[in-house]
Request: fold
Amino acid sequence: MRLAESAEMYLETILILSKKQSKVRSIDVCEYMNFSKPSISRAVNSLKDDGYLNIAADGALTLTADGEKIATKIYERHTILTQCLVFLGVDEKTAAEDACKIEHDISDETFEAIKNHMKQKR
Reply:
């Protein structure tokens, strides 16, 4: 079963934040995504219930193996698609915004072709 785009975004955000700071809490996700606390709370609890996220007693969020796999996949897509669009001449801000829209819908086959093409261009 494929996760909803919003769930993928939450997992990706937690991954990004965990690379920048030792503990990630719901409030960090709220601030990063500019979403309300109730929205984040519902999403976090749903991701926990679905086995993608752990919540420690102190409120720290950590990705499970399944959650990390999805977050890493989406983050890689975002990074490579942004690079590809910048390579094509799109300014970096627009490229990142567009990559965020594309990363959730692009097929694995098409993404792999883009990824391989970008490797050849380096």
In short: Helices lie at 5-20, 26-33, 37-49, 65-87, 92-102, 108-121. The beta strands are 53-55, 61-63. The first strand starts at residue 53 and ends at 55.
